[in-house]
Amino acid sequence: MKYTHTQALLLLSSCFCATSLASIISDARYVFAFSCSSSYTTEGWTGIGNPLIPYNKTCSTAGPNWIQQLVGIAGNSELIDLAVNGATADQDIVFTAPPDFRNQTAAFLSWIAPPPDQVPWTGDNSLFLVTFGTNDIVRSFFNSTGNGTDLHVKIFESYFNTVDKLYLAGARRFVFNNVIPFDRAGRGIDQGPVLQEKMKFNILDINFRLSVKANAYCASKKDIICTVFDAHSLFTHMMDNFKTLGFMSPDAFCNDYAEVHSCEAPGVAPACLGPISSYIWKNGLHPSWAADTLWAKALYGQLSGIQSS
Ligand SMILES: *[C@@H]1O[C@H](CO)[C@@H](O)[C@H](O)[C@H]1NC(C)=O
Ligand SMILES: *[C@@H]1O[C@H](CO)[C@@H](O)[C@H](O)[C@H]1NC(C)=O
Ligand SMILES: *[C@@H]1O[C@H](CO)[C@@H](O)[C@H](O)[C@H]1NC(C)=O
Ligand SMILES: *[C@@H]1O[C@H](CO)[C@@H](O)[C@H](O)[C@H]1NC(C)=O
């Protein structure tokens, strides 16, 4: 068991720490993504049927999302993206209609485990990226008690039961992204100060529970490597230092880009402050591809530092 939880902030400066040692990213021939903050990750699979059948890709980032960019930087991995827009970890706990983490995992178990000929993955040549929590909070914080703790405990019980199904199928290398501070983006600001504060504490609570559960789960297995990526700190850093990082605003978005779902960046809209890449946020909830570039680079840096043997 190896467990690391490095501050994303440190990695911004030490990114691309090139190393000749094998790392969990240099070893990764396959990158499997499961997501519920899933519109952050999804490429447009509906969650129904065989995820290996080609489908038209969409990106909520108006340009390539962090996971496509991560795989692009890594350069030697195939991305198999089972994320579904709008999903939660468990729709029996926080309901949204799209297939949840359990369903995405069920599809993996139906179609990709045991490994089919066209995807000969093993525990050592694959990475499992899991990104849930955003929709869980968006759909529950309003009515949650206090910081949402009771609900979040249930969510992570289900979440790690699902992770365990992947483990039992042979998954051995896990990356868990925490939830970014969208309370400071349009979606949070629109709530007014009281609910914005509640949203903030719900996000902090869910991230705290994720780190505790991930630590406990990973410590319970001798043969796995896992890491939590602190996307929350990264986005906090980005919003606090938006100018230095080349963005025009910590929280603004432009209506002309807000509904773009292409994985290629749109042309510059004259009514906006600049191209989509000058915004951290594509809309009130979803980052732009340029913010996702920093996510991909920082995560790549973290994964490069985790030796695989
Ligand atoms: C994918 O997009 C192309 C071009 O827009 C379209 O012709 C095709 O029907 C789409 N395929 C699916 C599965 O939606
Ligand atoms: C998702 O999983 C739940 C629980 O296992 C199940 O009840 C539901 O039918 C599944 N939905 C889909 C679309 O597969
Ligand atoms: C909160 O609960 C009320 C009453 O049950 C319901 O009408 C409302 O839709 C809920 N709001 C959210 C955001 O879930
Ligand atoms: C929410 O979390 C904050 C910070 O940990 C804490 O001060 C506050 O008491 C919590 N509120 C509730 C209702 O649990």
UniProtKB/TrEMBL annotation:
Keywords: Hydrolase, Signal. It comes from the Eukaryota. This is Carbohydrate esterase family 16 protein. It holds the Pfam family Lipase_GDSL. It comes from Collybia nuda. InterPro entries: GDSL, GDSL_Est/Lipase, SGNH_hydro_sf. The keyword Hydrolase applies. The keyword Ion transport does not apply. GO terms for molecular function: hydrolase activity, acting on ester bonds. Residues 1-22 form the signal peptide.
